[in-house]
Amino acid sequence: MGSKSRKKPKNLAPKLLQIRKALGLTQSEMLRRLGRDESSQTARISEYESGAREPSFLTLLAYGRVAQIHVEILIDDEARLPDKLPSDFDFARYKQKL
Length: 98
Description:
This protein has about 100 residues and is mainly α. The protein has helices at about 10-20, 25-35, 40-50, 55-65, 70-75. The radius of gyration is 14 Å and the shape is globular.
C-alpha cells in the first residue's frame, strides 16, 4: 500500500540560497546562524539550496528567524522574499507568554 508523495514547494531552494547570499554568509556561517553543528551538517546547506534535500520544519523556522521573515514566505510558491533581508518581522511579538 503506497502513499502519494506530498507536493513540495518549487521555489524553496532558490529562496534559501537568496537568503544566504543577501545576508552575505558562507554555508558554514549560515549553519552557525541556524544553530546547527557545523561538523555534522556542512553539506546540508548546499543540499537545501539545490533542492536535493528539503529542510525540516524546525530548520525552516530557523531560516525565517535568521532572515526575519514569516515562514509562510518560504513555503508559499506565490510569495516572494522581501527586497531587504533581514526583514523587519518581529518574532518576539508572536511568542506565547507562559
